[in-house]
Amino acid sequence: MEQTTSASAILTINGVEYVTKNSETATDLSNADATFLKIGKVYLIRTVTMIYTGRLKDQSKTELLLSEAAWIAETERWADTCKNETFKEVEPYYRDVILFKGAILDVTEISKPQLIQK
Fold this sequence. Notes:
Blueprint: E1 3-5, E2 10-13, E3 16-19, E4 42-47, E5 51-59, E6 63-75, H1 78-84, E7 87-92, E8 97-100, E9 104-110
Antiparallel strand pairs: 1-2, 2-3, 4-5, 4-9, 5-6, 6-7, 6-8
């Protein structure tokens, strides 16, 4: 196994180049404070096991605080749900909800919270 390191932090193993974790060219965003999410906006949030909607009330480095939140138990086809904001089953919360960012897969903005159980 051949192994070389250059000043640009490229590691070559068996002819394949890798950028090392400590490279100046690599960016570690795990501690970044910046976010695309805006306080007051309503989001559709897909986590590893569930789907939620809610108005972003606050956030920390690891958590989102949602008001007007609901667990979406069942949706239409995903593209249709995102486009038309149609949900088959909605279970609203009556208090704020905390979601852990580590469980979130994707987030998209929607026009209004889902407040009626169906």
